[in-house]
Design brief:
By secondary structure, the chain is of the alpha/beta class. The chain folds into two domains: 207 residues, Alpha-Beta Complex (2-enoyl-CoA Hydratase, Chain A, domain 1), CATH 3.90.226; 48 residues, Lyase 2-enoyl-coa Hydratase, Chain  A, domain 2. Helices cover 49% and strands 14% of the residues. The strands form two sheets. It has a six-stranded mixed sheet, sandwiched between helices. Strands 5-7-8 form a three-stranded mixed sheet. Strand 2, helix 1 and strand 3 form a beta-alpha-beta unit.
């Protein structure tokens, strides 16, 4: 696996990959290099068949401070150019699309991704964690769609993903106010699955959950993620038809045979992802 990352770190624990936001001095703020690396690391995880699950967590005193405004030169003076305004705006548009693609990488990854959030998760941090499958947090964690407070619109994923997660009213409250939502409200509205006392117990809980998922046949888990994603964007009838085709095409795996044999022999199955 690659190790040439600067803003993040990629650790490996058996079939579980851990993507670690690793710029604590800058509070894990998202500079341009961050977006490129987060997109690349989840593509690497997606393509590695020996990885079954991923955990996303962060070093330092908080999870993520959001976009690095200075490194991104957002709202700053632009250097002189002979390009027309139309050309400049088209470049900005393409730039935003690239960042959207990078932040969507956990969602597009075939493997389940668990976000383990401690302390504050601000702006782009919410974009990133809402693209994950499952979110866990510490008791002191807060979540804020902070873009509104600095005069911009969250544009790389939060506004598209937050409503199905927390509901219409809560999504609008978060987006319109930009305020920090504490862990208790995050749990109540479904933004997180579970709240832990501190970062140590959070990581222990995330790793236990990852191990529980990784113990299942990986092809079945990945197929389930695919079907869930499809069904969320289509009608029930369309989703049923899709899963019927999927099951017809991908059910006959060696892991299915192993599950049946293990049941008959009253032993723990050994799945290989084949």
């Amino acid at each position: 696996m690659s190790s040439d990352y600067t803003a993040i770190r990629l650790d490996r624990r058996g079939p579980v990959a851990e993507v670690v936001l690793n710029n604590p001095k800058k509070l894990n703020a998202m500079a341009p290099i961050f977006f490129e690396e987060i997109g690349r690391v989840f593509k690497e995880i997606d393509e590695d068949d020996s990885i079954y699950v991923a955990i996303l967590w962060a070093e330092g005193r908080l999870f993520c401070a959001g976009l690095d405004l200075f490194a991104s030169n957002l709202g700053g003076k632009k250097p002189p150019t002979t390009e027309s305004e139309a050309v400049q705006k088209m470049k900005t548009y393409r730039h935003i699309l690239e960042w959207q693609e990078d932040i969507s990488a956990p969602e597009k990854c075939r493997k389940p991704v668990i976000a383990a959030v401690h302390s504050h998760c601000v702006g782009g941090g919410v974009d990133l964690t809402t693209a994950c499958d499952i979110r866990l947090c510490t008791k002191d964690a807060t979540f804020a769609i902070h873009e509104t407070k600095i005069g911009i619109v969250a544009d790389v994923g939060t506004l598209q993903r937050i409503t199905p997660i927390v509901g219409k009213g809560m999504a609008r409250e978060m987006a319109y106010t930009g305020k920090r939502i504490p862990s208790g409200r995050a749990l109540d509205c479904g933004l997180v699955n579970e709240v832990f006392e501190d970062k140590e117990s959070l990581l222990a809980g995330a790793r236990a959950l990852a191990d529980e998922i990784a113990a299942n046949p990986p092809l079945a888990v990945q197929s389930t993620k695919n079907v869930l994603a499809y069904s969320e964007e289509h009608t029930i009838k369309e989703g049923l038809d899709y899963v019927a085709h999927w099951a017809t095409s991908f059910t006959a795996s060696n892991d299915l045979t192993e599950a049946i044999n293990a049941f008959k022999e009253k032993r723990v199955p050994k799945f290989t992802g084949s």
